[in-house]
Write a structure and sequence with these properties.
The protein is built from two helices and no strands. The protein is mostly helical and 85 residues long.
């Protein structure tokens, strides 16, 4: 075989290798795009499932909280009476 036939084979090998790399990159990009789409879809659907309102009666106010509220109300009344005078 002559030198030119070896060079032609080498060129074809390079072209096949280049197109193989391009094809692999395209396939990886398509897979990544599909994976990202599935991820965003699942997150979007989960948002509505996670934050649904639940009918739960409010808990009773603790005695300590009631005392603190009464104390604050008393202070506010005293402050309001002090301003009136």
């Amino acid at each position: 075989m002559s030198a030119t036939s070896w060079q032609r084979r080498r060129q074809w090998k390079r072209r096949f290798k280049l197109w193989g790399i391009v094809l692999c990159v395209c396939l990886l990009g398509a897979g990544a795009a599909l994976g990202l789409r599935l991820l965003l879809t699942s997150v979007g659907e989960a948002k509505y499932l996670r934050y649904e309102p639940v009918d739960v009666p409010p808990q009773a106010v603790s005695p300590r909280h009631e005392r603190e509220r009464e104390e604050l109300d008393r202070h506010e009344r005293m402050a309001a009476e002090g301003k009136e005078k």
